[in-house]
Write a structure and sequence with these properties.
With 222 residues, this protein is mainly alpha-helical. The protein has 2 domains: 2-31 and 117-221, no CATH class; 42-99, no CATH class. It contains 11 helices and 2 strands; from the N terminus they run ααααββααααααα. A hairpin with a 5-residue loop joins strand 1 (89-91) and strand 2 (97-99).
Length: 222
């Protein structure tokens, strides 16, 4: 993300920011579960399911494109999908296999709406609606190049700078939040956190980027 933003490619950093956001809201939800160890196990097992499905799809693609594949490995993966992940698997009336959308059974929007953080639902709307075109290559991602705005170069650069700073400050905020949500990671030093936050807000103000109020920025460690 740092390399992309340094080169003014904030649009390509948006998917990475979404990943950080999803990690944060999943850790928030996991931390609210009455049996944390069971939730961690479910989270890890769903990760294994995703790995198995990915490897199987890769083998099937290789087979369809005429490449040699390990048929024994494919059989093992099929058996795992049939027997190992039954808590995530259901079969519809017509025999179609359906997998839960996540380890928790909930979509990202639901997790964001259930968060106690006052900005979480708004952050979801920003990254999964307003910035969605950057992740999915929608027409809006190309609009500026299709219809040049005719603005002076300085204004275009200033506009990009504001987007870059907002992307970086949100990434730092999510990183600090994720840090505080992981119990086995050494705690964040409060003085260091405050220094980072103040620098982040000062940079945002300098470039005219939107930034949270001090009380909201400080809530990242709560």
């Amino acid at each position: 993300m740092r390399l992309l933003c340094e080169q003014a490619h904030w649009e390509f950093a948006a998917p990475i920011l979404r990943q950080l956001f999803e990690l944060v809201i999943n850790m928030e939800y996991l931390g609210r579960q009455p049996d944390r160890e069971a939730a961690v196990f479910s989270y890890s097992k769903y990760g294994l399911l995703q790995t198995v499905r990915h490897q199987r799809l890769t083998l099937l693609y290789d087979e369809k494109t005429g490449r040699p594949i390990d048929t024994q490995r494919l059989a093992v993966l099929d058996q795992m999908l049939d027997e190992t992940f039954r808590e995530f698997r259901s079969v519809h009336d017509k025999g179609n296999v359906h997998w839960k959308p996540s380890w928790s059974g909930h979509h990202t929007r639901y997790l964001a709406e259930q968060s106690k953080h006052p900005l979480r639902a708004d952050q979801y709307e920003l990254m999964f609606s307003a910035w969605s075109e950057q992740a999915h290559g929608a027409p809006a991602a190309l609009l500026d190049n299709m219809f040049p705005r005719g603005l002076p170069v300085a204004k275009v650069v200033a506009s990009d700078d504001a987007e870059i700073i907002q992307t970086v400050t949100m990434a730092m905020t999510f990183f600090l939040e994720l840090w505080t949500l992981l119990p086995n990671v050494p705690p964040v030093d409060h003085a260091q956190r405050l220094e980072w936050t103040n620098k982040m807000l000062a940079e945002a103000r300098k470039h005219g980027a939107p930034f949270p109020a001090p009380s909201q920025a400080d809530s990242t460690a709560r």
